[in-house]
Structures are given as structure tokens and as C-alpha cells.
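Many introductory courses stop at the sequence. We go one step further.
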Amino acid sequence: MANSKTITSNDWLSYTSFLVLVFAMVAPIGEGLLIAFAVVFLAVGISSAVHSAEVIAERVGPALGTLILAISVTVIEVALIVSLMSNDTADSPQIARDTVFAALMIVTNGIIGICILLGGLKHKELGFQLVGTTALLGVLAVLSTLTLILPLYTTSTNKGTYSAGQLIFVSLASLVLYGSLVWSQTKSNKNFFSASEGELAPVVTTHTRPSQKRAITSFISLLFSLFAVVGLSKILSPTIENTISALGAPKAVVGIVIAILVLAPETLAAMNAAKINELQTSLNLALGSGAASIALTIPAVSLYSLLFDKPLTLGLNTKGIVFLMVTFLAGSFTFGSGRTTSLHGLIHLVIMASFLAISLMP
């Protein structure tokens, strides 16, 4: 089986991504060719890192596994954000806000919308755990309010920003809330986040737990992938911003691009779960990724901002607040009964399409 192999194709991709980074740093190749290689292997590195983290998670169990996967994805997201913030452009202070907000919109409307639509078209009606799902949605609502809305109403600093003390408090509060969510999912209330009675029984497979050697190899591959992603994102950061400017698109689109890159693996996994009538798994992946994106990324970026004296703007504009409100309003209807259909999915996809359209055509 795949897990019995000491070194898999995914490991080789991780090592190759790292070698491409080293080559890009020392080899005098043309800029166009360098950018092409960097783009391809940035995507490869992100995918390899998430896959390696998933293998480790299977070995160490759900509690540590959830943290490992979340931290790995956060490292990637923070690397992309920090690489762009370090360019010190006029829009650098908003990069973290735009990325986190885009990730929130993608998970709550894009990923959930397509999962419910696909699952609903195939199975007509989908079931999920009401208590666990509303808890996830509640955590997301509080985190988004603390980080994206409350900065607009503080008075000790400029509108949309936090003082150093406020940043520290909000970061600690976010970490405590996310830690409590992980504890609830993996220890105290696991049954609230498992498949509901309305879902099909899980398919029995011959998939075995990875060996210790396989887990160690995956951990090494994870480190190589993360180094590659951090380095390649730094190389690509000016190109990303220049491309957005050349296209005449608003700077907020940079955050959307970063969020799409980071959330691509979770999106595929959530869609596959929905197709086999395991919507709860899809919701755990999507909403859990959204919570981690806010609760882990904001503290990390805040620490960078405080240590290197970089300005950080978190408060949304009016359009963003409207999208946030309609997202949670629609979510309260979608997840209010424990059952959902393809129509609910279409509602969220319309919100997502509107968000993208208004972002590109402000």
C-alpha cells in the first residue's frame, strides 16, 4: 500500500520544490523562466505540504493531527502574507485583512456552496450534526468580528487598526477560542462533529495507519515543502503584485489569490466527502480551515507587525461588512435545521460569485 512505502512520489515532489528554490536563488536564469518554475513549484509545494501533514495526522491521531495540518497551512498563508507585507507598498498593511477575509468568504460560501450543491444534486437531501456545525459557525462569527469589524470602532488608534495592547489581546483571545474548538472536536465533544444519522455509513477501506518510519519521512518532506513555499513566495511576491496592477485589478485581489492557493487542497477533500454523502466531513474541513485561517494567521501576522514595526490594517470597508453579514445570515438559515439541499448550496455560491464580481469590479 501507499502508506507502507518509505519514500513516496509526494516526498520526491517536496524535495524537488526545495531544489527549485535553491536553484532559483543561485542560478543566473532568465526572469521569465524563473517565474514560471517558481509558480509551478509553489503550487506543488503547497499541495505536498498539506499531503505530508495529513499523513502525519493519520499517524499521531486526530487531536495532534488537526493542529499539525492547521499549523502547516497557517505557515504557508503567513509566509505569503509576510512576503507581500515586507515589500512596503501602499497596500501592504491591508494584505493580511484581505487574505483572511477572502479565506472566510471562500470557505463559508465557495467551498460549502459547491459541496452542498454537488451533494444535494446527487443525494437530494444532506444531513449534518446541528450542534457541531453551529458551534463552528459561531466560532467563525466571533473571530471575524474581533479581527475584521471591531477595529473599525476603537478610538486609541486610526480607524481600522489596533494598538499594540489590543493586538495582543485579540491574538490571545483568538488562540484560546481556536484551542477550545480543537479540544471540543477531538476530545470533549467528538460526537457532535462526527457523521450524523442522516449521512451514509463510512465506506470501509483497507487503508492502514502509516508506520512510524513513514510518518518521520512525511515530517521531513513537510519541512522541505514549507521551506520551499516560504522561499518561492518571497521570490514571487513582487510578480504577484505587478501582475495584479498590470491587469488593472484592485489590490484586494492579491488576498483572494493567496486564499485560493492555500485552500485548494481542503476544497478538493471537502468536495470528495460531499459526493459520498459525508457533508459533516466537508463542513469540518471548510469551517475548521476558516477558523484556523483567522485564529492562527492574525496572531502570527500581528507578531510580525509588532516586532518589525509594520503597519497592519484589519478593519473591513462597508462592502466587506455587508458581505460578512449576508454570509452569516444565509449560514444561519442553511444550518438551522440539520438538513440541507442543493438550493442552499446555490445560495452560498451566488454570494461567492457576487463577492468575486464586486472585488474585480468595485
